[in-house]
Amino acid sequence: MNRLFIFSLGLVAILMPRAAHGIGQTPYILHRAVPGAFPVVQGKSAAAIYTDSADWPGVARAAADLSADIGRVTGIAPALVRNATGVKTDAIIVGTIGRSPVVDQLIRNRKFDVSGVAGKWEAFVIQVVTRPLPGVSSALVIAGSDKRGTTDVTPSTLRGFVESDGYASIEAAHYSRTVPTQAARWEVIPDVGRTLSGMSVFPVDAPSLTPGPASPCLEYRMYLFHAGKAEVNAILSPTLDFVPGRGLRLAMAFDEQPPRIVDALEHNTHGDWQASVRDSVRSIKTALSVAQPGYHTLKIWMVDPGVVLQKLIVDLGGLRPSYLGPPGGIAVN
């Protein structure tokens, strides 16, 4: 994807106030023109934002939010255009696949690739397109696979936890959804842990379960700005090996990926025990991945009883070392 010149400035200024990008990641916000960049704001002018009148009403509201965000940060609010003939210069085109005639025409003309979001829910794609309309040299095209995929790209319509500074920090008790089963369930243990509360499995003598429909699950919905490696750091209470040889297992995965079983006691030397006593937690890091930016749901399944989950940190490359970890974020509802 081409690097974007100030495109995300309004969004990032609200959702990621402390930094524009994570450590070691390519910045998408530039303050000078470079080859391949799209000038959203340049000099005293801003690229107009086009939405089609045939698209969902929420798309026009999202475009208005984006214009206001850019205006608050740069002092120059892009004009809002509803008629394609009114686009005379470089523009930002926002639309829903199947609802925006301009977006659909770009797809038919093979100028805009949506293969990465075809058939997916609540997904969107961003590309710089050359000569999208007569008299328009280039456009930044933002297209959603459905209504929410298009409208959920603005601060006012985001739902769930939001990546900030290259990570998402979540208190375990702030789950988006809990899915109990007949065999067991996750419940909150108030005030357990270093920062808030803990989530543990009840009844405490429940049998070990295979992750899947028969195993209780915690879900954490989040919006991530980066794709690729996503290291999940699960902060657990320092439960002892009270069933020798079994381990202390849970499973995790993003979206519909296969559950990955991890054992909190896989490394259980005397030194590991000393560290858990000193820190009052066990920290389990698991390398997962997400295919593209957008909405994702992190799922945590019970495998063994006795696990007490305190916190989850999803590191997209920006996490800095600290004793307690970053404060838990607040889910946007």
Tell me what the structure shows:
A hairpin with a 2-residue loop joins β1 and β2. α1 crosses α2. With 333 residues, the chain is of the alpha+beta class. It contains 5 helices and 19 strands. 14% of the residues lie in helices and 31% in strands. It has 2 domains: 9-157, 2-Layer Sandwich (Chitobiase, domain 2), CATH 3.30.379.10; 161-315, Sandwich (Jelly Rolls), CATH 2.60.120. Strands 8, 10, 13, 15, 16 and 18 form a 6-stranded mixed beta sheet that branches. Strands 9, 11, 12, 14, 17 and 19 form a 6-stranded antiparallel beta sheet that branches. It has a 5-stranded mixed beta sheet with strand order 4-3-5-7-6. The radius of gyration is 23 Å and the shape is elongated. The protein has helices at 9-15, 57-74, 101-108, 147-151, 270-279, and strands at residues 41-42, 45-46, 48-50, 80-81, 91-96, 124-130, 138-144, 161-162, 167-171, 177-179, 185-189, 198-202, 217-224, 228-236, 249-254, 260-263, 282-290, 294-302, 308-315.
The arrangement of helices and strands along the chain is: HEEEHEEHEEHEEEEEEEEEHEEE
Helix segment count?
5
> What's the pLDDT, averaged over the residues?
83
> Any low-confidence stretches, pLDDT <50, length ≥5?
1-28
